[in-house]
Inverse folding.
């Protein structure tokens, strides 16, 4: 079973279990990849329509619900962060700062930071992850796909997998996710090169293990 077959199976199972928030987050992550095959994108869009249809009956979260969801389980955090990404985050400085300092779900925190960067929010926040504490200003950071480390790693991976499209697709997906999890830090050129090596070794080992 290849990468996309496993992905579709996972999404299918989430939909069957009515875990629409988790399925939606997984689909959105895949659609953020710089390049995906047309037939794969078509399938993901189909899954996305199912998620939207089943979530359409839900009202938009008000501010009180947003705050409540942010400090609940992982699924609720993802739902809240997704909703916040559609709002003007300049109106939610305090809530964003409190959540980023909490012991929240790392994936959800990364998505919120990504939204803050894309909205060019000019405000200092404190991000806490275990014992690590980082002060950052979103307006000083670049969207992932424009960062030096991402561009460098993408170029290196394209050269490595020039004749292996399936590995290239997987590498692009892993690259975006690694850069997302690195937030609130934009990878530099050297870090991008090291990440490309790390990803290529992981993929080659995975493909070798299947033989």
């Amino acid at each position: 079973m290849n990468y996309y077959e496993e992905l579709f199976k996972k999404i299918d199972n989430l939909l069957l279990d009515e875990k629409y928030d988790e399925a939606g987050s997984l689909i959105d992550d895949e659609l953020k990849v710089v390049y995906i095959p047309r037939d794969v994108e078509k399938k993901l869009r189909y899954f996305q329509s199912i998620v939207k249809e089943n979530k359409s009956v839900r009202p938009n979260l008000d501010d009180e619900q947003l705050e409540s969801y942010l400090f609940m389980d992982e699924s609720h955090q993802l739902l809240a962060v997704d909703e916040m990404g559609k709002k003007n985050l300049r109106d939610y400085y305090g809530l964003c700062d409190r959540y980023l300092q909490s012991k929240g779900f790392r994936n959800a925190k990364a998505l919120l930071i990504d939204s803050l960067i894309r909205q060019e929010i000019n405000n200092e926040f404190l991000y806490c992850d275990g014992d690590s504490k980082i002060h950052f200003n979103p307006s000083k950071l670049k969207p992932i796909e424009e960062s030096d480390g991402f561009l460098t790693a993408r170029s290196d991976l394209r050269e490595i997998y020039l004749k292996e499209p399936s590995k290239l697709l997987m590498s692009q997906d892993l690259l975006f996710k690694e850069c997302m999890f690195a937030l609130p830090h934009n990878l530099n050129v050297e870090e991008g090169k090291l990440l490309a090596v790390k990803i290529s070794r992981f993929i080659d080992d995975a493909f070798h293990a299947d033989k």
Remarks:
- The longest strand covers residues 125-129.
- The chain has three domains: 3-55, 63-140, 144-209.
- The beta strands are 125-129, 132-136.
- The two ends are 12 Å apart (CA to CA).
